[in-house]
Amino acid sequence: MSLYHESARLLTDSQAQKTSIKSLVYGKKTWKSDPKTLFALSTEAAKWSSVLSEVVERSGILKLERGLTPVLALVLVHDLLLARRGVALPATHGLHAAVLKHKARLTAELTKARLRRGCGSLEALRAMVEGLDGGGEGHVTDGDSGRDAVKPFRQPRWVRINMLRTTLEEQIAFTFKDYTVVASLHELSGAASKLLYFDEHVPSLIAIPPTVDITSTQAYRTGRLILQDKASCFPAYLLDPASTKGDVIDACAAPGNKTTHLAALLHEAQSSSTEIGQVIACEKDEARSQILEKMVKLAGGSEVIEVLAKQDFTKLNPDNKAYANVTALLLDPSCSGSGIVGRDQGAVVVHLPDINAVTESAVRGKKRKHSTPAAKQPSLQEPIAVEEEEVDAGNVEESSEKLKARLANLSAFQLRLLLHAMRFPAATRISYSTCSIHPEENEHVICAALFSHVARERGWRVMRRSEQVDGMRAWQKRGWKEACSKKIEEVGGDDFGDTNAEEVAEACIRCEKGSEEGTMGFFVAGFVRDEGFRGSTNGDAATSRQSHSHEGRLENGPEGQDDDDEWHGFEDEG
C-alpha cells in the first residue's frame, strides 16, 4: 500500500518547498492513495511530530529497522499508537511488522513523553497537541459554573479578498451571503456555523471559523479568495507600495501570497494614478519558482507581476538601469520558522527523529528485555528515572547550541539581504519580516542594518510608528526594547544620538504565536529615507519598464518551466 510512502513524501516536500500539505495533495491527480485519507494522515502526523519524533528517537527502532526512514517511521507510529483503526496495512506487511514488533517499547515511550508534558492521560496530551495546533490557549468563561476555565483558543481561518479579481462587496454578496457577521474573533473559535469577522487592521481581510472550509468554493478555486495568515499580510500593507509610485521588488517571493498582495495594493491605486509601477518577484529555487508562477497566474497578477524565476535577489545589480524605477522592496527571507503555527492552511513544521540518537533509556530498555523478569518490568505510570532526566539535560544543551549556531547563520544571511536592498538607488521604502520569534532574526537584524555603513551613507532610517499606515500604527504589540538596546550597544550605535532603542522597538511590529489575536508568531519592520537621498533613475518609468527583459534582468538562469499539475488555490506561507 502506497499511503505511508506517499505521506512521507508529502511531509518531506512540504518542508523542502515551504508550501502546504493541502496544496501538494490537491495540486495533482497522480496520487495512488485517496487524497482525503492522505491529507488527514499527513496533517495529523505533522501535528504530532514533536511528540512522535521524541518517541521514535528514544525507542531506538531506527537503529533496529534499517528499512524505516525517520519520516516513514513518523507516519507509521502515528497510526500504530494514535489512529482509531491502527496501521492501515495487514499485520504481515513488512512496514506494519517493522513497527508492530516494537509496539510495547513505543507505547512506553509515548507514556513517558506524556508524563514529561504533565499530562495525566492520552486525552489530556491530545488536547494539548490540539491546543497548540489551534494557536494556544486562552481564558474562556465557563457559562455553567460562572468560573474561568482554560480552554483551547483555535485560530481562525484568515481570508484575504483578492482585489485583483474581485471586491469585498462582491464576495460578501455571493460567497459569504449566508454568513453572520460577528464583533470579535473569539466568537469564531470552535464555532461550527458560518460566521464572519472583518479585520480592523488590514483592509479586505476577513476571518471565518477554523471548522468552516471554503476551499471547495468557486471563489477560492479561481483565486478570488486567498488563505493567508493575518500577520503575513502586514509586510505588503506596511510597505504601502503605491505611495512610492514606482516598481516594487519582492526579494523572496514564493509561494506568492505577499507578492499578489503587493500587486493588489498597486492595482487598487491605479484608479487614481497612472504612475504606479509593477511587482518584480525574485525566487531562486526552481520548484518554488514554478509554484510562484502558477499562483501569480491564478490570482490574475500576470499584468502587474513579473516573475524572475530561478533568480537570486542578492545577485541583482542595484545599479542596473532595469531597476532604476525600483522605489520599494519587500524582504521576507528564509528564517527559523519558529513562529509558525501548525495548521493545514500553510507549510507545517515537521519534527523528525534523529536516526543516530539512541538514548540511554533505549539501551537500558533493551537490556531489561533480556535480563529482567516480566513481573519486575516498570509500570508505564511510574515516574521518570533521574538518570533519564540527566541525559535529557545534555540533549537540551546540545540543541540550544545548535539553535544558536543556526540563528547566527540565518541572521547573517538576513542582514546581507537587507543591506543589499538598501543599495538600490531609487528605493525609499523597505519592509523586512520573518515568521520567527527570536530577536536574533528580528530586532538584532534591524539594529545591525540601521547602524551599518550603507544605511548611514544612503540615509536609511527606521520607519517610525507615527509614519506607518493606520492599521499598522494601531497594532499594539511592538518590538522588544531590551533586544534593541543590546544590539545597538554591540554595534556601537550609542555613538549616534539621533536614534535610540525605545524608538526602534516602537517602530517594530510583533505578533505572538498562540495569542487570542489569531496570528502566528511574526515580526515586521520598515525602513524609509527622504527623497533627498534618492539616486538618479537613469530614465523615466516607461524606459525602465521597457528594459524589463530576460536578457537585462535575469542574471542567475532562465525562467522555470510551466507545471501542468492542477492547482486548486492559495494557501498560507510560512
UniProtKB/TrEMBL annotation:
<dbReference type="GO" id="GO:0005730">
    <property type="term" value="C:nucleolus"/>
</dbReference>
<feature type="binding site">
    <location>
        <position position="332"/>
    </location>
    <ligand>
        <name>S-adenosyl-L-methionine</name>
    </ligand>
</feature>
<dbReference type="GO" id="GO:0008173">
    <property type="term" value="F:RNA methyltransferase activity"/>
</dbReference>
<dbReference type="InterPro" id="IPR048889">
    <property type="entry name" value="NSUN5_RCM1_N"/>
</dbReference>
<feature type="binding site">
    <location>
        <begin position="252"/>
        <end position="258"/>
    </location>
    <ligand>
        <name>S-adenosyl-L-methionine</name>
    </ligand>
</feature>
<dbReference type="Pfam" id="PF21148">
    <property type="entry name" value="NSUN5_fdxn-like"/>
</dbReference>
<feature type="domain" description="SAM-dependent MTase RsmB/NOP-type">
    <location>
        <begin position="147"/>
        <end position="530"/>
    </location>
</feature>
<feature type="binding site">
    <location>
        <position position="283"/>
    </location>
    <ligand>
        <name>S-adenosyl-L-methionine</name>
    </ligand>
</feature>
<dbReference type="Pfam" id="PF01189">
    <property type="entry name" value="Methyltr_RsmB-F"/>
</dbReference>
<protein>
    <recommendedName>
        <fullName>SAM-dependent MTase RsmB/NOP-type domain-containing protein</fullName>
    </recommendedName>
</protein>
<dbReference type="InterPro" id="IPR049561">
    <property type="entry name" value="NSUN5_7_fdxn-like"/>
</dbReference>
<comment type="similarity">
    <text>Belongs to the class I-like SAM-binding methyltransferase superfamily. RsmB/NOP family.</text>
</comment>
<keyword id="KW-0694">RNA-binding</keyword>
<keyword id="KW-0489">Methyltransferase</keyword>
<dbReference type="InterPro" id="IPR023267">
    <property type="entry name" value="RCMT"/>
</dbReference>
<dbReference type="InterPro" id="IPR001678">
    <property type="entry name" value="MeTrfase_RsmB-F_NOP2_dom"/>
</dbReference>
<dbReference type="GO" id="GO:0070475">
    <property type="term" value="P:rRNA base methylation"/>
</dbReference>
<feature type="binding site">
    <location>
        <position position="312"/>
    </location>
    <ligand>
        <name>S-adenosyl-L-methionine</name>
    </ligand>
</feature>
<keyword id="KW-0949">S-adenosyl-L-methionine</keyword>
<dbReference type="Pfam" id="PF21153">
    <property type="entry name" value="NSUN5_N"/>
</dbReference>
<keyword id="KW-0808">Transferase</keyword>
<dbReference type="InterPro" id="IPR049560">
    <property type="entry name" value="MeTrfase_RsmB-F_NOP2_cat"/>
</dbReference>
<feature type="active site" description="Nucleophile">
    <location>
        <position position="435"/>
    </location>
</feature>
<feature type="compositionally biased region" description="Polar residues">
    <location>
        <begin position="535"/>
        <end position="546"/>
    </location>
</feature>
<dbReference type="GO" id="GO:0003723">
    <property type="term" value="F:RNA binding"/>
</dbReference>
<dbReference type="InterPro" id="IPR029063">
    <property type="entry name" value="SAM-dependent_MTases_sf"/>
</dbReference>
<feature type="region of interest" description="Disordered">
    <location>
        <begin position="534"/>
        <end position="574"/>
    </location>
</feature>
